[in-house]
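Hey all, sorry for the wall of text incoming. These are the three entities for the joint prediction.
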Amino acid sequence: MKFFEKIANIDSRIIYLLLFIVVLIPVAFKLVLPVRVSEPVQAAYDSIEKLPEGSVILFSVDYDASSAPEIQPMLLATLRHAFSKKHKVLLLGQWALGLPFGEIGLNEIAPQFDAKYGMDYVNLGYRPGYRAQMVGMGREIRDFFASDYKGTPVDSIPLMQGIHNYNDIDLLVGLEAGQAGDEWIQFAGARYGLNIIIGATGVIAPDMFHYLQAKQIKGLMGGLQGAAEYETLVKHSGTGIAGMVAQSYAHLLLLGFILIGNVGYFVIRRRKQA
Amino acid sequence: MKKEIPLAITFITGLIIIVTFFIPHQPLGTMQQRLLLWYSIVLGFTMLLGMDSLLRSNIRKIAKRSPGWPFALVLIIGFLGTLIVGIYTWATSESLLSLGSSFMYVYTYFIIPLQATMFSLLAFFIASAAYRAFRARTMEATLLLITAAIVMLGRVPIGAEIWDKFPLIQDWIMEVPQMAAKRGIVIGVALGTIAMSLRVILGLERTYLT
Amino acid sequence: MMQIIGTWIAAGLTLAIFSFLYKDNPFYKFAEHLYVGVSAAYAILYVFYFDVKPLLYEKFLTEQGAEKWILFFPAAFGLIMLARWIPKISWLSRWSIALTVGIAAGLGITGQIQGILLPQIRGTLVPLTSVNNVIMVIGVIATLVYFYFSIAHKGAVKHGARLGMVFIMVAFGASFGYTVMARISLLIGRLHFLVYEWLHLVK
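and here's what came out:
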């Protein structure tokens, strides 16, 4: 009797401690497991892979520190892929508090491929306005981004010559932790025919599958697993692959909690009924 | 006049945006582009809206030495300190975003750990909630529980190690039944949003003015 | 050196917030208040750096003729939005709200029709030649029936709504599973920081 009551009423702090340990050990000991690549991530990869060399890819950094552990590895992996294929990169952000992650990503990856600022990539910065800005950029990017993040006029940046609106952009990589992804799909994808792939947090990734099926987006990376899959495809291990064992063990632990919670609940309930 | 002018502004701007969608030619095209730009500019200002009450309430707390006032002081010092560092960076660096600038120092070593850790607490709370509240009490709850369990196993590498079909079942759930329900929901939401937007433009819905 | 100090600060703040898991305490409160203060200042700076400066100030310098003076309007709408701060004239801010609401509603109608409604219906109009397609079409219709409250849920409608409920529960379960994944990832991110950026300094 006492046993089942106990397992139905474990102190929260014990649950916290167990979760902490279960995540810490694989992280500290760098355990890894093979990562299987799912179709939506493969499709995202192919969208960049199949572009002819020198294509223009727009990256939208629409997240901040609250979801960076999931999405930053996606940014790094897709940037790595884009630069390795000698594509041109434009980057902007819809989340004020997250824009530095874009700059951090560019500064980490671009030098590895000898990509030069202004020639191979540009950071346009942030402007408020979400949907209004997305629709407006379909006509002329300069109306909203007349200068880059440093204040340099866009017209004096070599890469930006001839880039005026979505007709001059081959793909959008939307890295999303909220509503901005849906807005890109509605206002740049549906309205102007911009090709889009999405990297989304686990929380919003399930809300992207209907876009994928309707071919409104070309590919999808969902959560840290999505990042790990893309890292596998670009053959460069990052924090996505590194986190997968911890992620696995934590899921098992949680399922264990759900199981014993239910066992305790049903045993006690049955005894009460008896 | 306090109500009529805003209603007129909403009606005219909403109408221009809709008409321009169908007729993007001059002068409507330029007019729309201008409105979109105005929207962006004005939306930026809304980010400032909460500031005065935030600062005022905390300054009052410090002045009155209300319980917990030292924390209000921390907030104000954090605010002023970041503002000063930001203005200094603006004046001396290439950009507010320049890595290595003092403003980015504050971002990297204060904002990132604070925000990221705050949200990582949710991992612990969801674990505790799963244990306490996730009970197979009814048929619906059982279905939800089973789906969640399969997805949690199928979505991580250990799932395939346990049974190689878990990832495939997970993919199928996400791409077929899950997607169908979400689609049903978004179609419903879209219809609702369209009706609501029309009511707003026509001035039938006015709660935003209160 | 500054980097090492910074990493120690970041680790200290991380642990201060984690301490909340034991119980609410002054360290957590300190970190929480610091977070609000610092990010508020950050937001203000960004408004000026990425909004007022490029979209108003720099445009005013570069535009010619009437275009230059038209910028007075968005500037005024932006400023009167702040009229909310002064109770006597706070009603003025409704003009700015009306502007943003009008534009957002106009974009909302066209965006929802073109970006959601039509493509999502088109995506549902598939040949019923595979089991998956049949399940998908039934799922979409059943979910819509479940949310259709204008008719009483009786007879065939009741069964349709019940089936809709099954699909919705599967969707919620899937969302829950993904949410668990997301939350755990955030914890992994923090522990990764503590182990590899901070503790390796300790060693």
